[in-house]
Amino acid sequence: MKQTFNVTGMTCSACSAHVEKAVSRVEGVAAVSVNLLSGSMQVDYDEAAVSSDKIIAAVTASGYGASLPQKAGGKAAAPRREDAAAGELKQMKHRLVWSFVFFIPLFYISMGHMMGAPLPGFLTGMDNALSFAFIQFLLTLPIMYLNDKFYKVGFKTLLHGAPNMDSLIAVGSIAAVIYGVFAIFQMNWGFGHGDMDRVEQYHMDLYFESAGTILTLVTLGKFLETRSKGRTGEAITRLMDLAPKTASVLRSGAEVEIPVEEVRVGDHVVVRPGQSVPVDGVIVEGASAVDESALTGESLPVDKSVGDKVAAASINKSGAFTFEALRVGEDTTLAQMIRLVEEASGSKAPIAKLADRVAGVFVPVVMIIAAVTAVVWLVVTHSATSALTAGVAVLVISCPCALGLATPVAIMVGTGKGAENGILVKSAEALETLHTIDTVVLDKTGTLTQGKPKVTDILPAEGLTENALLGLAACLEIPSEHPLGAAIVEEAAYRQLPHQPAEDFTAVHGRGVRAALGGRVCLAGNRAMMEEAGVDLSPWLPRAEALAGQGKTPLYFARDTTLLGVIAVADTPKPTSRDAVAAFHSLGIDVIMLTGDNRRTADAIGRELGVTEVMAEVLPQDKERKIAGLQEQGKKVAMVGDGINDAPALARADVGLAIGAGTDVAIESADIVLMKSDLMDAAAAVELSRATIRNIRQNLFWAFFYNSLGIPLAAGVFFPLLRWQLNPMFAAAAMSLSSVTVVSNALRLRFFRSRFSSGAAGSGEIGSVRSAAPREEDINQKQGGNTAMTKTMKIEGMMCAHCSGRVEKALNDLPGVTASVDLAAGTATVNGDVSDELLTKAVTDAGYTVTGIQ
Question: What is the pTM (predicted TM-score) of this model?
Answer without folding.
Answer: 0.55
